[in-house]
Design a protein that fits this description.
single chain, about 170 residues, mainly alpha, 2 domains, about 45% helix, about 0% strand
Length: about 170
């Protein structure tokens, strides 16, 4: 497997044939391939009568990773109350000490510089939905535990201030 600039895995047509040979029940529509013209020709020729199997049109070559992320974020489902939430004020209201206010303010500036406020809103919605439906999730993984903001949102349960973890570890 290879990965494109957008983090999507794709395969060559030879690798795809090998996968299908080993596991015939695989859905061909779940794979992205390297040669789109060849793939689309094969779909038209062999699968035109199967509605679930569709031609694929990759992103234009001049499409930026930032544009990709913005497009993906625009289609996330989120109720209006979360879309319009003043996430910065919400997080600041969760702070109990001046040190927490300082840390959250510092992190919010970094999130804002990277245009990640919509992501924070979505994470708030996601965590609230999991709690509402009694879904359990892990304590925390990797560098995300360095973010005190994510701790306050409930994404993880590691207090980065207690363990003196720098936000720079997360936003490298």
């Amino acid at each position: 497997m290879k990965y494109d600039d957008f983090g999507q895995a794709y395969t060559t047509t030879d690798e795809l044939c090998e996968f299908l040979y080993k596991e015939p029940a695989l859905n061909i529509g779940d794979f992205l391939v390297e040669d789109w013209d060849q793939y689309n020709s094969a779909i038209k020729e062999n699968y035109a009568d199967i509605p679930l199997v569709k031609e694929y049109h990759p992103y234009p070559s001049d499409y930026s990773v930032d544009a990709f992320h913005k497009t993906q974020q625009s289609v996330w489902y989120m109720p209006t109350e979360y879309k319009t939430l003043d996430i910065a004020q919400h997080l600041l209201n969760l702070c109990k000490t001046d040190a927490e206010l300082q840390r959250v303010g510092e992190e919010l500036l970094l999130y804002q510089e990277r245009n990640l406020f919509d992501l924070l809103r979505y994470l708030k919605y996601f965590v609230d939905t999991m709690r509402l439906n009694n879904v359990l999730w892990g304590l925390g993984r990797g560098s995300s535990v360095a973010s005190y903001v994510l701790y306050l949102l409930g994404v993880h349960r590691i207090n980065s201030m207690y363990y003196d973890l720098s936000i720079e570890e997360f936003l490298k």
